Structure formats: structure tokens, C-alpha cells
């Protein structure tokens, strides 16, 4: 999506270790008119798929997932990160390895808000190694819900997550795909 690529070129900052900072419009301060356009594109791509739930992980995906849910006319559920290992039976739970912070954490969603009747679109800000999406997919499968696909704002295509998920048959739509990036040369898109 040209608008998004231009914004990443203008305001994105590449850090050592393969991290792109987009805090000025996506991850910290949120540009809501931009989000509206991104969400409209997700809604267009998944038009007619009968999505009745958007699912993301707290925290940085919640903003774009909210606006996407509004465009689709359905609720947004965000999986909570939980430090508690012993979780009661009323939640679906899976594990995620954090790309940005390291370590493994549990994610939980109440069984009240995800079940077999749901047709789910996953939404997240970034796709890197795919751990966050894989954790969410596990929740969807455990709940007996239908996975329609994923809407990603920025895919780091030089990391394996996108390819791995697509090869498993998951529909992944990314609005910007980064082929390579470095502190010296900035960002190159696919
Ligand atoms: P994955 O689980 O696919 O490895 O990583 C996805 C998650 O890690 C996203 O939810 C996002 O919060 C974070 N993440 C991965 N790469 C980046 C990055 O380059 N910049 C930022 N700001 N977050 C990232």
C-alpha cells in the first residue's frame, strides 16, 4: 500500500537488531486517519468472508484492530498477556515467544468471547517470526472457531513468519512488506 510505504520511509527508524521503530504513527502515537485507511483496506480485502470477530494481542495491535473491527461491523477481542501459569478453565490459552522483548509468555482469551460460531480475522501491527500469530491461531483452533485469515500492517518478509504461515494455508494479507532493511540503507519494500 503506497501510502503506508511512503509513511514508513518518511517516519520509520531502523534500529540495530532488525527492529523498525514506527512509534510516531503506529506503535506509540497512533495516526487515526491513517488507521482508517489501513482498516478500510483490510475490510476490502476480506469483504464477503463473513468475519464476525477480530482478534489481536495486547498491546500494540489493539489500535488498528479496533478500527478494523469498526469497518467490519464486529467486535474486537484482544488476547491478554498473562504471567499466571495456573489459569482457570474458563479461558483459552497458548504461548508466545516475544520478538521484541525476548522470553515466552502466555496469552489468554475468555471462552465467553471466542467459540465455534466465530469467523475470525487476526490483526496485528507487525509480522516477523510469526510467533504472535501462531499463538493466536492456536487459540482460534482450540476454540473451534474458523480462521479466515490475518491482516498485518507491516510484514518483515526477510523473517520467516509470513512464508511459514502461508505455506500452512493461512491467508496472510500484509499492507507493507519489507524485503530488507538496515541502519545505513533504510527500508526496501518487496
Ligand atoms: P513475531 O511474533 O511475528 O515474531 O513478531 C510480531 C510481534 O513483535 C508484533 O506484535 C510486534 O509487536 C513485534 N515486532 C516484531 N518486529 C518488530 C519491529 O521491527 N518493530 C516493532 N516496533 N515491533 C516488532
- Approximate shape: globular
Q: Which percent range describes the beta-strand content?
A: 35-45%
Q: Which ligands accompany this protein?
A: guanosine-5'-monophosphate
Give the biggest sheet. 8 strands, mixed
Structural class based on helices, strands and sheet pairing? alpha/beta
* Helix-strand pattern: HEEHHEHEEEEHEHEE
The average pLDDT is 95
Alpha carbon gyration radius? 16 Å
Describe the structure.
It is a single chain. The mean pLDDT is 95. The relative contact order is 0.17. Strands 5-6-4-3-7-8-9-10 form an eight-stranded mixed sheet, with helices on both faces. The protein has a two-stranded antiparallel ribbon with strand order 1-2. The longest helix has 14 residues, at 32-45. The protein has a single domain (2-189), classed as 3-Layer(aba) Sandwich (Rossmann fold), CATH 3.40.50. It is globular. It has helices at 2-11, 23-27, 32-45, 62-72, 131-143, 161-167, and strands spanning 13-15, 19-21, 53-57, 76-82, 91-97, 104-110, 119-127, 146-156, 172-182, 186-189. With 190 residues, it is an alpha/beta fold. It is built from six helices and ten strands, in the order αββααβαββββαβαββ. Bound molecules: guanosine-5'-monophosphate. Guanosine-5'-monophosphate is lined by residues 19-21, 27, 60-61, 99-100, 124-132, 156, 161.
Any descriptors?
single chain; 10 strands; binds guanosine-5'-monophosphate; two-stranded antiparallel sheet; 190 residues; Rossmann fold; alpha/beta
SSE blueprint and pairings:
Elements: H1 2-11, E1 13-15, E2 19-21, H2 23-27, H3 32-45, E3 53-57, H4 62-72, E4 76-82, E5 91-97, E6 104-110, E7 119-127, H5 131-143, E8 146-156, H6 161-167, E9 172-182, E10 186-189
This protein binds guanosine-5'-monophosphate (5GP).
Residues 19-21, 27, 60-61, 99-100, 124-132, 156, 161 line the site of guanosine-5'-monophosphate.
Amino acid at each position: 500500500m503506497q501510502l503506508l510505504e511512503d509513511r514508513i520511509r518518511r517516519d520509520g527508524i531502523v534500529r540495530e537488531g532488525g527492529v523498525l521503530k514506527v512509534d510516531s504513527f503506529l506503535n506509540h502515537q497512533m495516526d487515526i486517519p491513517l488507521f482508517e485507511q489501513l482498516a478500510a483496506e483490510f475490510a476490502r480485502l476480506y469483504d464477503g468472508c463473513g468475519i464476525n470477530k477480530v482478534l489481536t494481542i495486547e498491546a500494540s495491535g489493539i489500535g488498528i484492530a479496533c478500527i478494523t473491527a469498526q469497518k467490519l461491523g464486529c467486535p474486537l477481542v484482544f488476547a491478554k498477556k498473562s504471567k499466571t501459569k495456573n489459569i482457570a478453565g474458563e479461558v483459552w490459552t497458548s504461548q508466545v515467544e516475544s520478538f521484541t522483548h525476548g522470553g515466552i509468555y502466555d496469552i489468554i482469551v475468555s471462552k465467553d468471547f471466542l467459540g465455534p460460531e466465530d469467523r475470525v480475522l487476526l490483526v496485528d501491527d507487525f509480522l516477523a517470526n510469526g510467533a504472535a500469530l501462531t499463538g493466536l491461531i492456536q487459540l482460534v483452533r482450540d476454540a473451534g472457531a474458523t480462521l479466515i485469515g490475518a491482516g498485518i500492517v507491516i510484514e518483515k518478509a526477510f523473517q520467516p513468519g509470513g512464508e511459514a504461515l502461508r505455506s500452512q494455508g493461512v491467508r496472510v494479507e500484509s499492507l507493507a512488506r519489507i524485503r530488507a532493511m538496515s541502519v545505513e540503507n533504510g527500508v526496501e519494500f518487496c
